[in-house]
C-alpha cells in the first residue's frame, strides 16, 4: 500500500520547484522505464503493477532494483498520464555539467526559449533518432523533466543530454570553424545551402522565433521553403519541432549522400 | 451576458458526439478566427472580448458578422484552452464529399489511424505549409474537429481539406500512374528514392504503423534512415507528425531542385 507521504512526494514532483528541491523527476510507461533500467540514470524507486514486475523480474534481480508493487488504481492515483502504463519511476536528476568542447563535435541543437513541453520532448526523440547527442536550451526554456516533456521523448530522455545555459555566452564561445545555422523565416533555402558535419542548429521560440540578440551570432540563416500553392496558405510558419526535424534530416541527407546540396 | 443554455451548447461541442449531432465545432484564438473570417467556412456565432471586437470591427462590418461581447472571465468559462485568446467561434462543419479524382493531383497525405490530436493538427499545418490541399484519414482516426486538433492546426484547418473514408477501398481505386509511398521502418532510404509530383503519402498509426491489410497496396516502402550513432538509440521510431513532415519536405526538395535523388 502506498503511504500518504509517498503519494504526496510523487505529486510534488509534477511541479518544477519541487523537482529542483529534491533533484528528482518522474518517468513512466513500459518502454521508457525499460530504457531507464538500461541507462546510467540513478533510480530512486519504482512503482509497478504485477504483470510489469513479472515481465521484468530477471532484469530487476540482475540490477538489484527493488520495486514497490501497486494496484492499477494506486498507479492511476500517482500517474501523470490519463492512461497509466504499468510502471512509474522516481529518478535522480543527472547533474551533468556542460563542457562546451564536447558539444562542438557532430551536430548540436540549440533551443532558444522553447516553451511547449511536447515540442521539447519530440525534439529530444528526433535528436536521438538522428544520433544527435546534445541539446542546449536557453535558461528560460521549458524544464526537460516536466512530465509532458519526459513522456514525449518516448525513452530518449536517457540518451540525449540536455543542458541549460546562457545562449549569448555559449554561442559566442564556439570555435570559429563551427558554424551556427539559424532557422528563420527568410533565410537561404536549406535544400540548396551547403551544410556541415559539425554545426550548431539554432531554433527559436514557438511564436517569437530566435531572440533579437542572438540573430547577429548566426553564420547561416536557413529556411524551409513553402510549397508552391494554388491557394494562399494560412500557415505562417512550421511548428518548432517539425522545423527542427526537417533541418536535422537535411543535414543527415547531405552527410549520407555526400552531396553539397 | 452568456445564457446558461449557450454555455451548455458550447460545452457540448467539446465532445465528438455532439459535434456530429449539431454539425458544428469550436475554433479559438486571434489568428485562427481571423483566418476563419477570410475563409468560406460558415460562422454560426462569435464570442469575443472588447479589444478583439475593436481590432476587427471593420472586417466584421464588411462581412456582416455579429459578435457577442464577453468578458475575459466568461471566455475562460467557455474556452477549451488554458489561456484563452480573446475570441471563440462556433463554426458549421463543412460537408465536403471526397471526390477521388480531385485528390489524385499533386501530393495527398493518407493517414491510417492517427489517434493523437496534436499529431493530426500538426500534420494539417505542415500540409498547408507545403501546399498539400488534401488529407485522407481512415474512419477510426481522431476527429479533425476535436478542439486539440483545431488548435494545433494554427488556422490551417480552414485551408486543408480533411476527409474520412475506408482506406482499402480508397487506395484500391487510385489510378495506376499515382503511386502510394508508405512510411515503414524498413523501407528504401527516402533520400535515395525516386519520388513523384503526384503521389499518395501513407502514414500509419503512432504505435502500430500501417495496418497489415494496407501494406500490400503500397507501391514504394520508404524510410527515414537513422543517424550514425556513437551510442545505441532509444528512439524506436520518429513521431508520426515528424515523419510526415520530413517525407513531405523530401518530396518538395526533389521537386524544387529537379533532382531524382
Could you explain the architecture of this structure?
- With 261 residues, chain A is α/β, with parallel strands linked by helices.
- Helix content of chain A is 35%, strand content 21%.
- Chain A folds into 2 domains: 89 residues, 60s Ribosomal Protein L30, Chain: A, CATH 3.30.1330.30; 158 residues, 3-Layer(aba) Sandwich (Alpha/beta knot).
- In chain A, the strands form 2 sheets. In chain A, strands 7-6-5-9-8-10 form a 6-stranded parallel beta sheet. In chain A, strands 1-4-2-3 form a 4-stranded mixed beta sheet.
- Chain A is elongated.
- At the A-B interface, α8 and α11 of A face α8 and α11 of B.
Question: Helix and strand string of chain A, N-terminal first?
Answer: HHEHEHHEHEHEHEHEHEEEH
Biggest beta sheet summary of chain A: 6 strands, parallel
Radius of gyration of chain A: 20 Å
Number of helices of chain A: 11
Oligomer: homodimer
- The CATH class of the largest domain in chain A is Alpha Beta
Overall geometry of chain A: elongated
Low-confidence stretches of chain A: none
Mean pLDDT of chain A: 95
Looking at the structure, the CATH topology of the largest domain in chain A is Alpha/beta knot
The CATH superfamily of the largest domain in chain A appears as: SPOUT methyltransferase, trefoil knot domain
Helix content estimate of chain A: 25-40%
CATH architecture call of the largest domain in chain A: 3-Layer(aba) Sandwich
Strands ordered across the widest β-sheet of chain A: 7-6-5-9-8-10
Number of domains of chain A: 2
Strand content of chain A: 15-25%
Distance between the termini of chain A: 61 Å
Count the E strands of chain A.
Answer: 10
- Biggest interface, chains and residue tallies: A-B, 47 and 47 residues
Structural class of chain A: alpha/beta
Amino acid at each position: 500500500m502506498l503511504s500518504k507521504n509517498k503519494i504526496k512526494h510523487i505529486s510534488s514532483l509534477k511541479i518544477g520547484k519541487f523537482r529542483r528541491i529534491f533533484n528528482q523527476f518522474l518517468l513512466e510507461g513500459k518502454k521508457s522505464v525499460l530504457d531507464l533500467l538500461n541507462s546510467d540514470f540513478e533510480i530512486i524507486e519504482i512503482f509497478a503493477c504485477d504483470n510489469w514486475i513479472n515481465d521484468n523480474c530477471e532484469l530487476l534481480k540482475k540490477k538489484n532494483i527493488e520495486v514497490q508493487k501497486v494496484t492499477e488504481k494506486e498507479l492511476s492515483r500517482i500517474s501523470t498520464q490519463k492512461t497509466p502504463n504499468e510502471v512509474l519511476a522516481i529518478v535522480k536528476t543527472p547533474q551533468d555539467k556542460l563542457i562546451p568542447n564536447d558539444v562542438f563535435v557532430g551536430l548540436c541543437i540549440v533551443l532558444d526559449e522553447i516553451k511547449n513541453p511536447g515540442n521539447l520532448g519530440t525534439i529530444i526523440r528526433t535528436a536521438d533518432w538522428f544520433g544527435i547527442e546534445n541539446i542546449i536550451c536557453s535558461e528560460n526554456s521549458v524544464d526537460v523533466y516536466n512530465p509532458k516533456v519526459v513522456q514525449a521523448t518516448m525513452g530518449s530522455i536517457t540518451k540525449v543530454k540536455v543542458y541549460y545555459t546562457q545562449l549569448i555566452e555559449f554561442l559566442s564561445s564556439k570555435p570559429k570553424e563551427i558554424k551556427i545555422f539559424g532557422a528563420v523565416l527568410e533565410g537561404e533555402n536549406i535544400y540548396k545551402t551547403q551544410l556541415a558535419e559539425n554545426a550548431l542548429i539554432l531554433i527559436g521560440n514557438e511564436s517569437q522565433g530566435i531572440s533579437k540578440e542572438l540573430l547577429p551570432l548566426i553564420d547561416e540563416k536557413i529556411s524551409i521553403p513553402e510549397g508552391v500553392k494554388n491557394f494562399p496558405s494560412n500557415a505562417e510558419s512550421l511548428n518548432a519541432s517539425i522545423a527542427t526535424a526537417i533541418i536535422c534530416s537535411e543535414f543527415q541527407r547531405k552527410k549520407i549522400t555526400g552531396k553539397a546540396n
